[in-house]
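Tokens for chain A. Residues wanted.
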């Protein structure tokens, strides 16, 4: 790592002094695959889209995968599959990217913010159970940082209350829970192919499911709600279609899916590389007072989208803002994932959320920093981050 064919812009010219927290990896084969589509007759809704869907379904171990234009569109489409609408409550973790909750709002539903486990920052099944009301329809579990949630515990809650279980797996493609791959652990699982995510298509997303009816509904939803797509009408020799419910244009292009297919081939090696980097960080910070890594359960294969440390979990000696600034000063592109969603003004204004609702997530937010982790990082890059963290915390 990394192969010499890497054409990531920062590496082709003079090396950038800033090491980002995440970065895509594009090689010449990826570029050739996209160019090949550009020379073909189908730029969208064509054979590359279907092939990419089949490949992701295979990794997830599901009957179906539906490709869409982003991870956010995937979440909105999953809400449509479940017919989430006004009056419905959907439980989401407070510690996630805003899109998880925004998608519930797009569908007309009300996001209910649940607190997370203090050690893993994953959705706490007991908190979920305590928030169920007669209006609750679904739970969206987020595999934060790439670690799969405790799906057995979550499933016990959703089964007891007859709720749908959705996995926001945007961080976790390539991960597994008790030997079962992410993608087949919930009724619907969403993925994102944004450049910082496990694989990229520029922008893009996918929903995996075993449910035939959900699949049909989602294919219609991503294409304006039309009852028959272009290929179907051509096969039938007909111009007829019906809009049976309101849909959107959430289609993805064949250029993007050609890239996604190439990226998917490299996913297993990339996950292995991320896991190796995480082990190096774990070892390097084990003896560093005031810097604590998140806990990893022993029944998961972690996909390590993010490597998050909590600065000074006890004692108050190290201030997060100071550590963050010290790392940025040393050219380490640290970030913070995430500002708890229920603290954003939109949610305060619209849903009356606010500080105190999810104390574990709020306290974690004050302390967390995401360190660089991506497959093309060299061992020297990792050493550079380790040295910078020791210096910042020293
Ligand atoms: C990235 C991300 C999304 C949204 O994906 P986009 O492809 O950027 O729309 C949703 N949920 C989580 C947890 C994410 O990290």
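Reply:
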């Amino acid at each position: 790592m990394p192969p010499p064919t890497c054409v990531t812009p920062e590496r082709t010219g003079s090396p950038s002094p800033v090491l980002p927290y995440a970065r895509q990896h594009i090689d010449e084969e990826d570029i050739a695959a996209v160019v090949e589509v550009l020379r073909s007759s189908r730029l969208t809704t064509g054979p590359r889209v279907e092939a990419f869907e089949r490949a992701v379904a295979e990794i997830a171990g599901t009957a179906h995968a539906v490709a869409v234009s982003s991870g956010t569109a995937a979440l909105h489409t999953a809400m449509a599959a479940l017919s989430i609408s006004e009056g419905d409550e959907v439980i989401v973790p407070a510690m996630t990217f805003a899109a998880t909750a925004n998608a519930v709002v797009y569908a007309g539903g009300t996001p209910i913010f649940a607190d997370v486990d203090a050690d893993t920052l994953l959705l706490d099944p007991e908190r979920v159970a305590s928030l169920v009301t007669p209006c609750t329809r679904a739970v969206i579990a987020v595999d934060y940082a790439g670690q799969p949630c405790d799906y057995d515990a979550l499933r016990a809650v959703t089964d007891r209350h007859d709720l749908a279980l959705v996995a926001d797996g945007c961080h976790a493609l390539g991960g597994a829970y008790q030997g079962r791959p992410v993608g087949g652990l919930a009724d619907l699982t969403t993925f994102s192919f944004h450049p910082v995510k496990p694989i990229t298509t520029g922008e893009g997303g996918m929903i995996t499911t075993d449910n035939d009816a959900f699949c049909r509904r989602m294919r219609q939803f991503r294409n304006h709600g039309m009852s028959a797509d272009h290929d179907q009408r051509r096969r039938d020799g007909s111009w007829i279609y019906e809009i049976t419910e309101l849909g959107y244009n959430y289609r993805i292009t064949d250029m993007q899916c050609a890239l996604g297919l190439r990226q998917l081939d490299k996913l297993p090696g990339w996950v292995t590389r991320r896991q190796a980097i995480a082990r190096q960080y774990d070892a390097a910070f084990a003896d560093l007072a005031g810097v604590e890594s998140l806990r990893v359960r022993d029944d998961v294969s972690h996909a390590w989208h993010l490597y998050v440390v909590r600065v000074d979990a006890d004692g108050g000696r190290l201030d997060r803002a100071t550590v963050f600034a010290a790392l940025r000063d040393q050219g380490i592109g640290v970030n913070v994932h995430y500002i708890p969603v229920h603290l954003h003004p939109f949610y305060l204004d619209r849903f009356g959320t606010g500080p105190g609702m999810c104390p574990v997530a709020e306290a974690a937010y004050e302390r967390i920093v995401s360190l660089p982790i991506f497959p093309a990082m060299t061992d020297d890059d990792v050493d550079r981050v380790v040295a910078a963290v020791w210096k910042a915390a020293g």
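The chain has two domains: 28-262, 267-392. The chain has 14 helices and 13 strands.
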